[in-house]
Backbone:
């Protein structure tokens, strides 16, 4: 992915035919410290990111060819005879240059979110509150339109939009238009996070967190089965149980991120719980029970559920008291 913020370049419209790219890079490493050299022709484009000491990363794209890293640098350095590139030099902050150079290492943490379960405005707030460093990829009407929203440590730093030539920029107007389009037409969202460990100078890597015990997973699995059965026998509750549960977990994702169905960490299917996320016994118990209570209340079956769960509540009374969770 060849992306660079299209801010005012330090210098622009140089012709690669007259340039020694290696010497050009050395000069601007000393002159501006951190930035990017962007190459553009009718058939290909590329970028080399640098700080004062190193070449951080590079990307090169042409038809049927995508290169990253050293291969991209080599191709761009020696491409003068192949493409009549126009070259632009951009000065970037240290934080920005590490961000752009780390784009390929971004990991999808939410994939295929749809407007059926969430809205873009709420998703942006959620990612900002979680101090995301990465981007939100938006596809509208099956890819006919779309955009990217770039975020560093929870702060929106710009975006790229299909109706604006796909070029990154900080325009608030385009972001508002993107949000409006997703409300008017079906859209899907992918959220990609750049691990701090991948960003040079980006800080410490994410700490490890506790995992819930098998005993607690078994306890909650029993509760989920009871809840599913209770919903099933109520004739006026016509919606699919899995869909109801996912919607409730999405609503509570701000409080219990590990339950967010689009993160793929918590899964209840075929009367079994599979959990691959990070949460303590207390956190997982609180998240699942509070979500179930809220959903039962909304469906008008809370009293019935409490009655059918009486034996379960007695069996696990000590654990619930220990976690300070009331069912």
Residues:
């Amino acid at each position: 992915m060849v992306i660079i913020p299209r801010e005012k370049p330090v210098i622009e419209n140089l012709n690669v035919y007259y340039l020694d790219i290696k010497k050009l890079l050395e000069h601007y490493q000393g002159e501006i410290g951190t930035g990017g050299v962007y190459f553009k022709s009718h058939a290909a484009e590329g970028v080399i990111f640098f700080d004062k000491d190193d070449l951080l990363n590079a990307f090169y794209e042409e038809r049927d060819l995508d290169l990253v890293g050293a291969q991209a640098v080599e191709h761009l350095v020696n491409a003068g005879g192949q493409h009549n590139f126009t070259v632009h030099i951009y000065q970037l902050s240290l934080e920005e240059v590490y961000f752009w150079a780390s784009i390929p290492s971004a990991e999808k943490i939410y994939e295929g979110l749809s407007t059926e379960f969430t809205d873009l405005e709420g998703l942006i707030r959620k990612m900002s509150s979680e101090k995301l460093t990465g981007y939100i990829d938006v596809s509208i009407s099956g890819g006919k339109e779309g955009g990217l929203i770039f975020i560093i440590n929870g702060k929106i730093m710009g975006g790229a939009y299909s109706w604006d030539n796909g070029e990154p920029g900080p325009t608030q107007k385009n972001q508002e238009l993107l949000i409006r389009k997703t409300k008017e037409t079906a859209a899907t969202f992918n959220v990609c996070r750049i691990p701090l460990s991948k960003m040079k100078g980006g800080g410490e890597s994410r700490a490890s967190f506790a995992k819930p015990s098998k005993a607690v997973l078994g306890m909650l699995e029993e509760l989920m089965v009871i809840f599913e059965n209770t919903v099933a026998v109520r004739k006026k509750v016509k919606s699919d149980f899995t869909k109801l549960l996912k919607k409730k977990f999405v609503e509570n994702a701000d409080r219990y991120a590990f339950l967010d169905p689009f993160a793929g960490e918590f899964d209840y299917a075929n009367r079994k719980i599979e959990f691959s996320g990070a949460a303590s016994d207390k956190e997982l118990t609180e998240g699942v029970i509070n979500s179930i209570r809220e959903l039962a209340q909304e469906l008008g079956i809370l009293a019935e559920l409490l009655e059918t769960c009486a034996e379960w509540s007695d069996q696990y009374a000590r654990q619930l008291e220990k976690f300070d969770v009331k069912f």
Summary: The CA atoms of residues 178 and 258 lie 28 Å apart. The chain has three domains: 11-101, 104-198, 214-322. The longest helix spans residues 214-233. Residues 11-101 form one domain.
